[in-house]
Design goal:
This protein has 151 residues and is an all-alpha fold. It has four helices and no strands. Helix 1 packs antiparallel against helix 2, helix 1 packs antiparallel against helix 3 and helix 2 packs antiparallel against helix 4. It is elongated. The N and C termini lie far apart (53 Å). It binds fe (ii) ion (2 copies).
Length: 151
Amino acid sequence: MSSEKVIDLLRKAYGDEMETVMNYQTNAIVLDGVRAEEIKESLQTDIQEELTHAEQLGNRLKQLDARPPSSADFVARQDSLQPPEDSTDVLSVIRGVLDAEEDAIDTYRELIDAAEAADDPVTEDLAVTILADEEAHRTEFRGFEKEYQQD
Ligand SMILES: [Fe+2]
Ligand SMILES: [Fe+2]
């Protein structure tokens, strides 16, 4: 038996992944300058991973007889990840990414707890796997933050 909480969190996580894909893609295009190259490349790699997360979450929802949300249900939340006025402001994008990854980490931790409480080890296992990816993204961008703060 799937719990409402598990379904709600899977749908929320799906929406967050899609918003992340949109903002990482836009920032990867908008950023300018030699210093931005490394960040743009890293964002491009992460976009593919976030898209895979969304697909996995959507397929799990289907297995639980539910559906992923589409644009009519969507509420944008990533204020700090909007592309900066100054297209060379790499640090602003790095900090927006860190906010998005922190937020994802919180959601997957919540999903792990909810899935465990609902005795749903398959969703729990998926959330643990995705959580590990988000923690790796955070570590990478914490490194970038240190590097770019210094110049
Ligand atoms: Fe993700
Ligand atoms: Fe991520």
